[in-house]
Amino acid sequence: MKTAPAWVDRTLYPFTSHWLKVEENELHYIDEGQGEVLLFVHGTPEWSFGFRDLVKALRDSYRCVAVDLLGFGLSDKPPGEFYTCAAHSGRLEKFIQQLALKNINIVANDFGGSIAMSYALQHPENVNRIVLFNTWMRSLKAEPHYTRPARVLRSIVGKFLYHTLNTPVNTIMPAAYGDKKKLTKKVHQHYKDALPKGDRKGPYAFALEMSYAHDWWQQLWDNMDRFDANRFLIFWGLKDSFVPPAELAQWKTKLPGATFVEFDDAGHFVQEEKPQEMVRGIREFLVR
């Protein structure tokens, strides 16, 4: 029987670890509390650890399920071509089916936004409300802000940065915080330990998706009218230099009836910098 590794600090992450075999690999997840389902879907270089403060605060009223995508956190990290957004989305659908999760409320960010929304658009009858933050879901191939670094990422230099130097954790993550003091050494170490050398295929595959997933994202974006905008709550850290406020403007145009909550002093990882504010906003949104 699998157990969490010793480096997981249970004072920070006081949850029971579970694993579920999906296709040929085991996905790690936590399943805390009872009631209406909140399904948390992370981005890169994250795992369910990033949602710990939200889960601790919300599990008194909701069933909080947070999955580690394949290649991340405590989930398996097999070799091969398993790590596109579309592949993650297919596994998330099977994960939901195998756990028989019903009437889901989604909480997702970064790459997890499109992965979760792919499920929502295919199964709108099983999704109630949607909470997103600092994410995108449209083609970015006409945006130099994304395409210029994408050229580097798909080169041998990009591969070295990700596989050898663990750049998304060691460099990009600290730079993405609005208040860098919020990324303590102990918290940062949990992201480092989850992606040891030799097991960094998941983050690098996401980096490559910045070159190859544009049509997949755009197809989702074009079908967003399947949901009423008032079913969306969107948080945004305005100090995010990686997914900047220009992307927030796209969401406001696409979903003018959604609820938007902006933080002037937060960056990309809003759940790490503003957990109390997010908890309060999610509670108010779900009971409204």
Characterise this structure.
There is one protein chain. The chain is built from twelve helices and eight strands. α1 (52-58) crosses α12, α2 (85-99) crosses α3 and α4 crosses α8 (201-212). By secondary structure, the chain is α/β, with parallel strands linked by helices. Helices cover 41% and strands 17% of the residues. The chain has one domain (17-287): Rossmann fold (3-Layer(aba) Sandwich).
Q: What is the share of helical residues? A: 40-55%
The CATH homologous superfamily is called Alpha/Beta hydrolase fold, catalytic domain
Q: How much strand?
A: 15-25%
What's the CATH C level? Answer: Alpha Beta
What best-fitting shape do the alpha-carbon axes yield?
globular
Unreliable residue runs: none
SSE series: EEEHEHEHEHHHHHHEHEHH
Report mean pLDDT, rounded to a whole number. Answer: 97
**Given the helix and strand composition, which structural class is it?**
alpha/beta
Q: Return Rg in Å.
A: 17 Å
Identify the CATH architecture: 3-Layer(aba) Sandwich
**CATH third-level topology:** Rossmann fold
> In order across it, which strands form the biggest sheet?
1-2-4-3-5-6-7-8
How many structural domains are formed by the residues?
Answer: 1
Largest sheet: 8 strands, mixed
Count all strands and give the number: 8
